[in-house]
Amino acid sequence: MKAYGKKVWVIAEGYIPEYGTGPEPEFTSHETACILNTSEEKAEVEITIFFSDRDPAGPYKVTVEPKRTKHLRFNELKDPEPVPKGTDYSSVLESSVPIIVQHTRLDSRQAENALLSTIAYSE
Amino acid sequence: MKAYGKKVWVIAEGYIPEYGTGPEPEFTSHETACILNTSEEKAEVEITIFFSDRDPAGPYKVTVEPKRTKHLRFNELKDPEPVPKGTDYSSVLESSVPIIVQHTRLDSRQAENALLSTIAYSE
Amino acid sequence: MKAYGKKVWVIAEGYIPEYGTGPEPEFTSHETACILNTSEEKAEVEITIFFSDRDPAGPYKVTVEPKRTKHLRFNELKDPEPVPKGTDYSSVLESSVPIIVQHTRLDSRQAENALLSTIAYSE
Amino acid sequence: MKAYGKKVWVIAEGYIPEYGTGPEPEFTSHETACILNTSEEKAEVEITIFFSDRDPAGPYKVTVEPKRTKHLRFNELKDPEPVPKGTDYSSVLESSVPIIVQHTRLDSRQAENALLSTIAYSE
Question: CA of A34 to nearest chain B CA: how many angstroms apart?
Answer without folding.
Answer: 6
